[in-house]
Amino acid sequence: MEFLELGAVTAAERLIGWGFYKREPNGELVGGTIIETEAYDQTDAASHSFNGKTLRNEPMFGKAGQIYVYFTYGMHFCVNIVTGKKDSGEAVLIRSILPEAGIKLMQQRRKQLKENLCNGPAKICQALNINRSDNSKIINNSDIILMPPIKKFKITKTKRVGIKKDIDRLWRFIAELES
DNA sequence: AGGGAGATTTTCT
DNA sequence: GAAAATCTCCCTA
Question: CA at A2, C1' at B2: how many angstroms apart?
Answer without folding.
Answer: 42
